[in-house]
Write a structure and sequence with these properties.
two-stranded parallel ribbon, two-stranded antiparallel sheet, mainly alpha, about 50% helix
C-alpha cells in the first residue's frame, strides 16, 4: 500500500501515542494530520507537553522505517474519516483514528468479540482461549486481537487456525 501524506501523518501520531481526543482538539487548530506534522514543533508550548514533543520527535525519527514496513508487508491503513472505517468502531468513545489491517476489513462488520486476559496464562487458560476463539470464529464471529502476548496471542491463533477470514 502506498501511503498518502495524510496517512503518513496519522501513522506518526499513532506511533507517538497521541490519543484520539487530543487529535480531535488538534484538528480545531490544524486542518489535517499532515498539517499537524508540518507544524507541530512551532506550537509545542501551546498544544503539546514536553513529553508529547519528545514522543512526536521519536516517532518522526522512526517514521520512514515504519512506512517501509507497512508497504513491504502488505499492511493496509484506514483513517477515521474514510468511508471504509467500520461504523461500529466509530460509535465508541475515543475510537482509534487510524486502523492497520491485513486481509478483509469487512469482517469488522460482523459480530466482533475480543478475548482478553493475562499476559502470563496457565496451560488451561491458553487451551481455553484458543478453543473458544476457534468456536467463535467457526460460528462467524470476528475475533479481535491486539496481538499482545499471553491470552491475546492464543485467542488470535485459535481464530486463525479455524478461519483466517474471520480474524481481525
Amino acid at each position: 500500500m502506498q501511503l498518502s501524506n495524510e496517512h503518513k501523518a496519522c501513522l506518526w501520531l499513532s506511533e507517538a501515542n497521541v490519543s484520539t481526543n487530543l487529535f480531535e482538539k488538534l484538528l480545531k487548530t490544524y486542518s489535517s494530520a499532515y498539517e499537524i506534522f508540518l507544524n507541530y514543533d512551532l506550537d509545542k508550548h501551546q498544544l503539546f507537553t514536553d513529553d508529547q514533543i519528545k514522543a512526536l520527535n521519536m516517532a518522526r525519527d522512526s517514521l520512514n522505517s515504519n512506512i517501509e514496513a507497512i508497504e513491504q508487508n502488505d499492511i493496509h491503513m484506514i483513517i477515521y474519516d474514510s468511508p471504509e472505517y467500520p461504523t461500529k468502531l466509530k460509535s465508541i468513545n475515543d475510537a482509534p483514528y487510524a486502523l492497520y489491517y491485513k486481509g478483509n476489513l469487512n469482517v469488522l462488520n460482523r459480530t466482533c468479540i475480543a478475548i482478553v486476559g493475562t499476559r502470563k496464562p496457565s496451560f488451561y487458560g491458553k487451551k481455553i482461549a484458543k478453543l473458544l476463539s476457534e468456536k467463535l470464529s467457526s460460528a462467524g464471529a470476528c475475533v479481535v486481537s491486539g496481538m499482545a502476548i499471553g491470552i491475546y496471542t492464543y485467542a488470535h491463533q485459535g481464530a486463525v487456525n479455524e478461519n483466517s477470514a474471520s480474524t481481525c
